[in-house]
Write a structure and sequence with these properties.
Layout lengths: L1 H15 L5 H12 L7 H4 L4 H21 L7 H4 L2 H16 L12
């Protein structure tokens, strides 16, 4: 009986945890976004959570479209049209929301 409860509790905990990780999103931001958005944490804190959520819905399609329509963002076109972006967008979303203007959080330099 105790084993059953332990297994049930473990499965519940694992299923409730989010698969997105803020530190992975920060890594994506540093590797891919700082090339153009050099002001880093100031750029992330420029927008509120609501705005980041809007841009990152549907695996980040609105943010990708925003970049793909902008000729100044030509350097990032390959990344935003790749499967790598859609795969890692959940992590980037977590990072952007965690350190948004209205979150009160400041990212550490890792």
């Amino acid at each position: 009986m105790m084993k059953f409860l332990f297994i049930l509790l473990s499965l519940t905990i694992f299923s409730l945890t989010s698969d997105a990780a803020i530190y992975k999103g920060q890594r994506v931001f540093v590797k891919k976004c700082l090339k153009c958005h050099k002001d880093g944490q100031n750029f992330v804190a420029k927008y509120k959570k609501k705005t980041w959520k809007k841009w990152m819905k549907d695996k980040g399609k609105p943010l990708a479209e925003l970049h793909l329509k902008n000729k100044k963002a030509r350097k990032s076109w390959n990344y935003f049209s790749s499967k790598k972006y859609t795969k890692k967008s959940k992590h980037l979303k977590q990072f952007l929301i965690e350190y948004a203007k209205d979150s009160g959080n400041i990212p550490a330099c890792n």
